Amino acid sequence: MSANDAPPPSETRDVYLDVEPVELYKILKFESLVHSGGEAKVVIDEGLVYVNGEQETRRRRKIRHNDVIEFENVLLNVIFDSDVA
What's the Cα-to-Cα distance from 1 to each of 20, 55, 58, 61, rounded to whole Å? Predict the structure, then answer.
């Protein structure tokens, strides 16, 4: 199933980063979409996470400004802002 076949996200959030890039699994953990870094790695390995509309299986995928992450009907819009701390 592709991201295009999935139902629309039920929640959209902006994620502000003060450094970039950040590894994908860390964002899932910090945004409380999973309970641990280990769980984040499992859901990525299983192909349940999409970045910019494409299935992503690289745990350490570097996430940057304007990337969009989708997992379990939650859409995360990544925004780099060096003033966030």
Answer: 30, 9, 18, 21
Domains of the chain: 3-80 (3.10.290.10)
What pLDDT shows up at residue 30?
95
- Residue 53 has which token pair? 């509309």
User: Tell me: the pLDDT tens digits for 43-68?
Assistant: 999 999 999 999 999 999 999 999 99
Q: How many Å is the Cα radius of gyration of the chain?
A: 12
The whole-number pLDDT of residue 82 equals: 73
* pLDDT for res 10: 82
CA dist., res. 14 & res. 55, Å (int):
20
- The Cα–Cα gap between 70 and 31 comes to 12
Cis ω on the peptide bond leading into residue 8 (within 30° of 0)? no
